[in-house]
Known about the structure:
mainly beta; five-stranded antiparallel β-sheet
Amino acid sequence: MLPPLTLPDELLEEIFLRLPPDELACLVHASLASKLWLSLLSGHSFNSRYRQFHGTPPMLGFVYSPIPFSGSVVPGFISTTKFGAHNPDRKSKVLDCHHGRVLLLDTGVAPIELVVWDPMTGRRRELCVPQGYNGYVATVLCVVTCCDHRAYHEGPIQVVLVFLDMSHGGCVKTVCVSSTEAGEWSDPCSRLDLETQYAIIEPMPPVLIDGALYFMLWYKMTILKILKCDLDSNCLSLLDASVVGVTNHTAAILAAMEDGSLGVAHQEGLTLNLWSRTIGSYGTATSTQRRVTNLKDVLPIQNPKQTLRLIGSVEGSDILFVIMDLGI
């Protein structure tokens, strides 16, 4: 009997490259077919080519904090593909998600801990919150130089805290960074006087653009400002949002736009307004209205008085997420 015909490794790789990234089961099934195929699919060469061939990886799903009065105390995961995440099994709240990691606030232990959770493997890294740091927002980031974050699972990461300090007569912003490898917090990196007792940081995940984090800050409670945290220089600065008419804390979000600019989206009834903030050649900032969308024209909304709530965006794109009741 003639031995079965085999394809060259190079041709097999070309076939595997064309398996769709949003159907992860295809790669899993192929890797289980034989030891040769498993070796090819798990090799560094194929992984690099696969990421380069398909570009930006697909969004695997949404992770969200427990819904009040739902009876659940653990975060949930809604998959947009056939990927099955390792859901957290402890009482916690979702704070942020970057570079394949989710940052949780574990409220089921004392003292309260921050947890860096890997939804792919289920691995957890606990980090105690520094004492006296109240009213903070936090983010988790990869610190690997020149990393494309497409196959990031075991590299070093850091957690950044931004919080209000009321002990100096006014609101002061301070950044504290910790590497989860060392497990220790650094000293406060920088401070920024706000010259007011009335300011809050919007408790939403920050936007990351070109090595800087951007947070929404309500100055004197009704004026929208943008807090910039430059990770390279460890400097904080306060920017004007340059958006008129935004006074509702649930009516605006920041977004990282497809062209690399900082976006500000806000709502007026059922109308979405999208602005982008760019820096000119002389260092001057300008805001341009990019889009006005009336949701009544694109969704089957039965109740014209229906309201919506902006909840987030996809970084590096012009995609926004809203929650609303269509009234159907």
